[in-house]
Amino acid sequence: ALEAIAGACLGEDDARADLATLRAPVLLLWGAEDRVVPPPGGLDARIVGGAGHLPHMEAAGMIVTDMSRHIASAEGSGYV
Questions:
Q1: pTM
Q2: CB-CB contact of 6 with 15 (8 Å)
């Protein structure tokens, strides 16, 4: 059922082209054990070991640290 939902939401489109058009700094976090939407290949994603589909809950401390660093590095870029 979850695969059907993911397929309906994501369709057959490859998000790589859309991500390539973004001008703002992007932090892509993905659970290494995600069985709903497996980690993407060929993207510069931070793969969160030991986390599944909900890395923001399964590895909250690490996610907050990564996001804080990402936001701090983007300050002064005109996007933050």
A1: 0.70
A2: no
Write a three-state SS string for the chain.
CHHHHHHHHHCCCCHHHHHHCCCCCCCEEEECCCCCCCCCCCCCEEEECCCCCCHHHHCHHHHHHHHHHHHHHHCCCCCC
Instruction: Write the single-letter amino acid at 52.
Output: G
H/E element, 31? strand 28-31
Q: Which of 30-34, 46-50, 76-80 has the lowest mean pLDDT?
A: 76-80
